[in-house]
Please model this.
Amino acid sequence: MLVRGVGARGYVVAHPRNLCLDIAPERSLAGIRSRLSARIDAAIPVSATAAVIKALVVSDRSGLGDGQWDLMRRTGTGHLLAISGLHVSLVAAWMFLLSRYAGGCCLRHRQSYPAIRLAWYMAIASALAYAALAGFGVPARRAAIVVAVAGFAALKGRRVLSSANLFLALVAVVTADPLSPLSGGF
Model:
């Protein structure tokens, strides 16, 4: 429970005054995720589809029914709903490619250094933003940190794939979450 960040345990007792209130402040990250989840519900009329999209975008699996979970278990696709480092790195890679292409089109030379710098900044920003939307779960947070370390190494003109960058990413991940080495995917 310590690894999962559980600091206390409690029980809910049946009582007429027990109410589910919206406890997320409007301008907090949790409030933004909650509003985005509500907008997805409002925009997509089919609740089963909205539930899957909410699970992929903001890691809100509350709308998924038992039938959907059973189907995902039988087809082996349930792991896709867990926002992992793969999802964060794919978002960062796509943003890198799109912004590299757009920057190359807008700037004078397609192979210009400013277009590559723009692409790295956009990749870092998108990795951090998607990890935030996913609630900064441990795998998403680790992937965002690794993308940021790689991006800043590239922006400084250093080799991205080096043992020094790997060590720097390790230090950053352990500094952000000292108990992360105890998790399964570390």
Notes: The two ends are 17 Å apart (CA to CA). The helical segments are 29-43, 47-58, 66-75, 85-106, 113-133, 138-155, 163-176. The CA atoms of residues 29 and 132 lie 7 Å apart. The chain has seven helices and no strands.
